[in-house]
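Subject: design request, 447 residues
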């Protein structure tokens, strides 16, 4: 499970550090080349919740393995991309496969771990996911130092084939016989696609009126979709889970935290490139984030079985705000060390926040809704990361994306995420009603 999750996350974000090189070789602008990242994330956000519902119906292992196969084929095609449109098409295909993997991964982890160790299991998964996302630019920088940018994608093919083989060992829980809501899945994908696509169009397009209209249509579709889902026994959008304030706050806080982290991770290569750092040096400067995260996140997952997520998250975001502020006000001519220790501090803060947040979301859901809760965790992560990428593209288009503005924006978002976490400590928000408590794992209550 860790191998498969790491593969799709790393190959999804490995292009970050290569964006300036891809823009130069393909002859496109910097704000346009960011779409290599955002198209991948938009497709993921559109498909995660529908694929989670589909996985419950066809089987979690079947969905996982099919996703890996599609991802492997698309990864091979990335090597042959000679234009931005073709690269965007195969990146979208990669995202379809990745959605099959990530939509059911948390539900499979819940099948593997006993309930009293779920926080530990999700902590391991969280460090794999967040560290993979953070280490991807480092790997990209190393590959770029010895090979052209198409190899950034192609180097993952042997690992994709190995992941397919390893996937045969994954448990195969019995599929549910619930009806899959095809129309609801289409509405869910349309809602996310129109809203995020419209926002992207505002950054890259020439008609803000048309872009605003696309966003408005997406909002209207979303309103209709949410109202329709309220009457569904197994909703694609897990409204039945989000009605609990503690889960709603966790979802909002997670979204904001991932937006903050992705804003920093995508903008930092552009900032360091403008300061004269080489691709390899940029990768080395970002490396302390995942390295620190690999230590802190498992510990946070272990603690989340014993300490309320509100406390851990509040402390984590306080650390992140300090680190992001220090990154914003680095020396005018920073050394590699100046960047590296600040990135390490950032990694520890987000590593302390995210695993307990995911543990609360997945562990507080009824077992039969584990796939929906897992899909929600992945959707929160990817929608936040997509929003962060879109935000960086907007800042680059405005000419302020290569300085201290992005880390300052990230620090402001981290403050809000920390407040959401602390708010979960209120007894009226933290404790489920008696009716809800019947369907919740005992150790998940009051966390």
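Subject: RE: design request

Done. Sequence follows.
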């Amino acid at each position: 499970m860790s191998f498969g999750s790491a593969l799709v996350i790393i190959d999804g974000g490995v292009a970050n550090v290569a964006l300036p090189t891809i823009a130069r070789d393909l002859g496109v602008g910097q704000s346009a080349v960011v779409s290599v990242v955002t198209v991948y994330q938009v497709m993921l956000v559109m498909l995660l919740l529908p694929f989670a519902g589909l996985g419950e119906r066809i089987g979690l292992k079947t969905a996982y393995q099919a996703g890996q196969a599609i991802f492997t084929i698309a990864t091979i095609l990335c090597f042959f991309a000679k234009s931005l449109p073709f690269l965007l098409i195969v990146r979208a295909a990669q995202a379809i496969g990745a959605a099959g993997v990530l939509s059911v991964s948390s539900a499979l982890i819940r099948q593997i771990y006993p309930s009293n160790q779920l926080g530990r299991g999700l902590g391991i998964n969280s460090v794999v996911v967040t560290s993979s996302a953070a280490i991807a630019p480092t790997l990209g920088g190393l590959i770029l130092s010895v090979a052209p940018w198409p190899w950034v994608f192609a180097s993952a093919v042997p690992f994709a084939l190995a992941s397919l083989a390893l996937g045969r060992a994954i448990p195969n829980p019995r599929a549910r016989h619930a009806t899959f809501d095809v129309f609801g899945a289409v509405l869910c994908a349309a809602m996310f696609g129109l809203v995020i696509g419209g926002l992207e169009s505002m950054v890259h397009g020439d008609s803000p009126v048309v872009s605003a209209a696309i966003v408005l249509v997406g909002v209207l579709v979303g309103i209709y979709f949410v109202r329709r889902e309220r009457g569904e026994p197994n909703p694609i959008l897990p409204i039945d889970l989000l009605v609990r304030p503690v889960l709603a706050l966790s979802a909002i806080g997670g979204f904001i935290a991932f937006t903050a982290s992705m804003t920093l991770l995508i903008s930092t290569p552009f900032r360091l490139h403008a300061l004269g750092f080489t691709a390899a040096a940029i990768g080395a400067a970002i490396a302390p984030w995942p390295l620190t995260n690999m230590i802190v996140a498992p510990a946070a997952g272990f603690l989340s079985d014993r300490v309320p997520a509100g406390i851990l998250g509040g402390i984590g975001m306080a650390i992140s705000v300090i680190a992001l502020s220090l990154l914003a006000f680095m020396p005018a001519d920073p050394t590699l060390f100046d960047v590296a220790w600040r990135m390490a501090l950032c990694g520890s803060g987000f590593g302390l926040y995210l695993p307990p947040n995911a543990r609360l979301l997945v562990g507080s859901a009824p077992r039969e809704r584990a796939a929906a809760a897992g899909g929600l965790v992945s959707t929160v992560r990817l929608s936040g990361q997509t929003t962060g990428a879109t935000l960086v593209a907007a800042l680059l288009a405005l000419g302020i994306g290569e300085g201290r503005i992005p880390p300052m924006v990230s620090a402001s978002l981290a403050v809000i995420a920390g407040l959401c976490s602390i708010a979960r400590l209120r007894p009226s928000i933290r404790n489920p009603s008696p009716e809800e408590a019947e369907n919740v794992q005992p150790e998940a209550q009051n966390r």
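Confidence is low (pLDDT under 50) at residues 432-447.
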